[in-house]
Design brief:
Blueprint (H helix, E strand, L loop, with lengths): L1 E5 L9 H5 L4 E4 L1 H8 L6 E3 L7 H10 L13 H11 L4 E5 L6 H11 L2 H5 L3 E5 L3 E6 L2 E6 L6 E6 L4 E6 L5 E6 L15 E8 L2 E6 L2
Parallel strand pairs: 1-2, 1-4, 2-3, 4-5
Antiparallel strand pairs: 5-6, 6-12, 7-11, 8-12, 9-10, 9-11
Amino acid sequence: MRINLLCSRRNLPENLFQEQGTERWAGIDRGALILLEEGIKPCMAIGDFDSVSAQERDYLESHLALNPHKSEKDDTDLALGVMQAVEEGYTEIIIYGATGGRLDHFMGVLQILEKPEYEAKNIAIKVKDATNVITYLGYGEHKVKRDKAYQYISFIPVMYPTVISLEHFKYALDHQQLNIGSTLTVSNELLEPEGQVTLHYGGVLMIRSKG
């Protein structure tokens, strides 16, 4: 099952709500209010709702069953939202509105992608904005299909060393070790409709970007 999580209006793909409006959505804090404004009733609303005014909170409570988390908590609102989505049985989670704001929050988002429990359960999590799609790839073989909308593909190591092979890419690699400070795997392209990424050791963030 698939669900979209909305955090804010920042860097959203064009026509997002028109194209994905009929899909299942969850609102992360103020994201729940934005969804209602767009005519979409979220199936979940998660957060402490400290980013909405008292009047906006009353509006939310009149349309949704809120169960706010305490402001002093061990996880971010988004981390709690992903956790709840996984508990509800969703195996594909697309996160919107999570880029372009505070860098510490964005780094926290990347930490969520790397969480070992989600990889072990084969939970596919993506962070998507107007120009990028970010996913985590761990040990093993991964098929990557060419997407004309996201021509450029980069692989950012999150463990050291990371050993990677790339097949059917413009810059192919065979058991290449990526060390701290390396930018070798920034900005690549697929030559075929489908390529293969093999992580022999370590893990990477795969970032697909528009030109």
